[in-house]
Amino acid sequence: MDLEQLFTFERVVREGSFSKAARSLNISQPTISARIQALENELGGTLFTRGGRVVTLTERGESFLPYARRAMSVLREGIEAAQFTGQSGSVMLAAMQSLSGSFLASTIERFYATHQRVHCFLHVAHSAEIIAMLTDGLVKLGLISYPFLAPHIKQLLRFSEPLHLMVGEAHPLARLPEVTLEDVRHLSNPLLSVRWGPSVDSYAEQLGLLPQPGLDLPFNTIRHLLLRGMGAAFLTRMTVAEDLDSGRIVQVEVKDLPPLYRESALVCLRGSTLSPAVRDFVQVMKDVAASMPGITRLVIEEKR
After folding, report:
1. What is the C-alpha separation between 46 and 50, in angstroms, rounded?
2. Phi and psi at residue 303, in whole multiples of 5°?
3. Which one of 46, 119, 161, 288 has the largest count of C-beta atoms within 10 Å of its C-beta?
4. Is 234 helix (H, G, I), strand (E, B) or coil?
5. What's the longest Cα–Cα distance across the chain?
6. For residue 77, what are the β-bridge partners?
7. Distance between CA 189 and CA 173 in Å, rounded?
8. Boundaries of each HTH lysR-type domain copy (predicted)?
């Protein structure tokens, strides 16, 4: 058994077919088939049920998959630990789009100043996708919505940021001397949905702040709609800091609105070993979060 066979096996599982795995790895499909056949011969049975365009794991394949991924993860950790001599290594991170802007940029900037030989890789995805990446060993750290329902995921840091109603500078709500909840419900035109997590969504629903159905949009699209004068959205100041400074987006104070907060967390796979480079990155992020005025609460690594 060799590493190429393990990487090929994991990629076929992820892609769902031999042909897609071959394209992903930039090798021929016969090479994929040969590697899987050699692995099956060593394990004493088939790993995939072949039929049609999609392959599925057999019972033997299901039982072998977590061990294969664990072996790949341990190998990556060993490579990182060996490479870290002289401040090298890598940081594999996935983050929600709303956290991939100024906050993460400030963290990377400060980290790079003292770790110029460390490679930083960033994936942008939704929280559920990030948890899957952590589970599969594709990334070491994730910035996701809090709370999360995944007992195999460990919280390292937790951040709390107030949410404010944001509109474009020419929006009708920006011109009112005083804005109420009733104004938000009827004049947002429309109220745009941002995925801040179930706790925020539930609270907003209790307040009657229901976003426009049929407009499930990514954050960048919502930002551009606000800049065009369309709609209103509850955002953190950090996500649109430059637009607020330029005056193109305006923060609207809502008279009778109880405080709304977005909570997020820096997480890793429970039981995983973090390389020196990754531990240093976590410390830098903690320092940056503690110094940013937009973050009202910072909770450090859980003790249990």
Report:
1. 10
2. -90, -25
3. 161
4. strand
5. 75
6. none
7. 10
8. 1-58
What pLDDT is recorded for position 35? 92
Q: Quick one: 106 and 243 in the same domain?
A: no
Report the 10 Å Cβ neighbour count for 57: 17
Q: What sign does the CA torsion over 21, 23, 24, 27 have?
A: positive
pLDDT score for 157: 93
Q: Which residue range is the domain that position 51 belongs to?
A: 3-76
Indicate the helix (H) or strand (E) that contains 176: none
Q: Is residue 253 part of a domain?
A: yes
Predicted pLDDT of residue 270:
92
| Residue-level pLDDT at 83 | 60
Shared domain check, 212 and 189: yes
Same domain, 245 and 179: yes
Contact 141, 122 (CB under 8 A): no
Helix axes 3-15, 18-25, angle to 10 degrees: 120
The phi and psi torsions of 57 (rounded to 5 degrees) equal -75, 140
Residue segments in the chain with a per-residue pLDDT below the cut of 50: 86, 304
Give the 3-state secondary structure of residue 187: helix
The whole-number pLDDT of residue 84 equals: 56
Final residue of a structural domain among 27, 56, 76: 76
pTM above 0.85, yes or no: no
Q: Collapsing DSSP states into helix, strand and coil, what is residue 160?
A: strand
Q: Name the strands in the sheet holding 88-95, side by side, starting at the edge strand that comes first in the sequence.
A: 117-124, 88-95, 141-145, 261-269, 153-162, 297-299
Residue positions counted in the chain: 304
Residue with tokens 């060593």: 42
* Residues 70 and 31 grouped into a single domain: yes
* 48-49 and 249-252 strand pairing: unpaired
